[in-house]
Fold this sequence. Notes:
Bound molecules: phosphoric acid mono(formamide)ester
Largest sheet: 5 strands, parallel
CATH architecture of the largest domain: 3-Layer(aba) Sandwich
Helix content: 25-40%
CATH superfamily of the largest domain: Aspartate/ornithine carbamoyltransferase
Structural class: alpha/beta
Strand content: 15-25%
CATH class of the largest domain: Alpha Beta
Number of helices: 11
CATH topology of the largest domain: Rossmann fold
Strand order of the largest sheet: 7-6-5-8-9
Number of domains: 2
Number of strands: 9
Radius of gyration: 19 Å
Order of helices and strands: HEHEHEHEHEHEHEHEHHEH
Distance between the termini: 22 Å
Amino acid sequence: MRHLMSPMDFSVEELEKLMDLAGDIEANPAKYAHACEGKKLATLFYEPSTRTRLSHEAAMLNLGGNIMGFSSADSSSASKGESVSDTIRTISCYADICAMRHPKEGAPMVACRHSSIPVINAGDGGHQHPTQTLTDLLTIRSLKGHLGNMTIGLCGDLKFGRTVHSLIHALVRYTGIQFVLISPEELRLPSYIRSDVLDKNKIPYREVVRLEDALPNLDLLYMTRVQKERFFNEEDYVRMKDFYILDSKKMELAPKDMYVLHPLPRVNEISVEVDSDPRAAYFKQVQYGVYIRMALILTLLEIEVK
Ligand code: CP
C-alpha cells in the first residue's frame, strides 16, 4: 500500500505518468466517471482549507465515489484529546483512502504508520504540501510545455510557506532549473533547504528583496501569502503582510510569457487588477488541482481505467 507524504515519494517517471493520467482525465472526463464507484474518501482536516479539502472531495465525486470527513479539529474527537493514530485506525474502518491536513509537522506520517488505507498528506504545518506541488507541476507543464530549463521566482513567505518547500524539493530533479528567492530578510527560505536541497543538488539561485529586481528575468513567478497562522506574534505579521503586492504596473516589468502562479488563498499580495492579465494562471491552477487529485486517488487505489 502506498501513501503520499512528500512529492519525492514519486520518481520523475511516476510523476510524468501521473500528469499524463491527469491530462487524459481532463480530455475524457466521462471515461473516469464511475472509476471509484463504491469507494469512500475521508477528508481529515485539523486546519482550515478551501481548495485542498474541496478539490479532494470534488476529485472523488468526479470519479463516482463518496466522501466523508471533518473540516476542523473542533468538530472531531481530537477536541476530546484523541490521538492521530487512534483516529486513523478508526477511519481505516470507514473509508478506502484519506487526505489529512494537520498543523503539526509529521502528523500525516504518524497517521500512515497506523493506517490500513492510503494516506495523502494535505499539508502538515510549515513542512510539506505534496498535492499542491503535484498541482503546480501539472500547471507548469501544461502552460509551458515542459518542467526543466526555466528561472522560477518564488516570492513572499519562503520561511513558513510549505507549498514553496515542497515545490523546491520536486523541481530540483529537473535539469536547467534556477530559482530567484524573493523575500524580506525575516522570511528567507530556511537554511536547511538552501543547504540540503539547493546547494546539495548544485541548483543555481539568488536571493533578492525587491520583486522589481527579479521580474524582468523570470519564466515563472510563484507568489505566496504571508502565513499568518505560523507567526508567534501579530505585530510581526502586520509588519510583513503587505511587503509584496504584485500589481499591473509591476507586471509591465515582466516578460510577456511569464506566468503567475499562486497556491491561494491570496490576501493582498496579488492585486485583483492582475487577474485579467493573460499571464495570471492561479485560477487555472485550481482547476488542474482537481485533475491531478483524481489521478492521484486512482493511482493510490491502484484502479486502472481502460
Ligand atoms: N492551496 C491551498 O492549500 O489552499 P487551501 O488552504 O484553501 O486548501
